[in-house]
Design brief:
alpha/beta; 6 helices; single chain; 176 residues; Rossmann fold
Length: 176
């Protein structure tokens, strides 16, 4: 019961502090293909984590500069042979309201990306806040509870299998 109240308050804070409505129209036709540097927020669920790395590899193949937002606990899973920039956080930097602490927010607001891709398939207040804290004109994510106001482009996945869901997501992204 209290967890849901904390989440509602967190969403209120995100809307109040970090949500930016742009006056410029977003051209979806070239939103991803013209993006040079992309922030990819990797999922916190272990089952989704390894399958989601395929999205980052796909974008890297297409000559995009990829920055992965990842927990410090999962650095080894990415591997050192990949040519990704890493933006990491420690689980202690997540507040009681499921929001990033001030140091992390300060670090993120200084960053500028052409696009942000949130690969969490379940509702994650922390990653929704991260996607809106960085400066970016394009935010892409999976359709989940309360996600309509946080992202410009949403993908609704019917697959329960992570590999199939991210494969379909890549097909969806390739249109843009």
């Amino acid at each position: 019961m209290f967890e849901e109240l904390r989440r509602k308050y967190a969403h209120f804070l995100i809307r109040r502090k970090y949500l930016r409505k742009s006056d410029e129209p977003v051209v979806f036709k070239t939103a991803i293909s013209s993006a040079k540097n992309i922030l990819v927020i990797l999922p916190s669920l272990e089952a989704d984590f390894s399958a989601s790395l395929e999205v980052a590899r796909y974008l890297q193949i297409h000559k995009k500069e990829i920055t992965l937002f990842i927990s410090e606990l999962k650095h080894e899973a990415v591997g050192s042979n990949q040519d990704f920039k890493l933006l990491s956080y420690h689980p202690a930097q997540i507040s009681w309201f499921f929001l990033p602490d001030k140091k992390l927010i300060t670090r993120l607001t200084a960053k500028r990306f052409d696009a942000v891709i949130d690969l969490n398939r379940q509702e994650d207040t922390f990653s929704s806040c991260i996607a809106n804290a960085v400066q970016s004109g394009m935010r892409v994510g999976f359709h989940k509870n309360r996600s309509n106001e946080y992202y410009n482009l949403l993908y609704e996945s019917k697959q329960s299998e992570p590999a199939a869901a991210y494969s379909k997501f890549l097909e969806h992204l390739s249109m843009f």
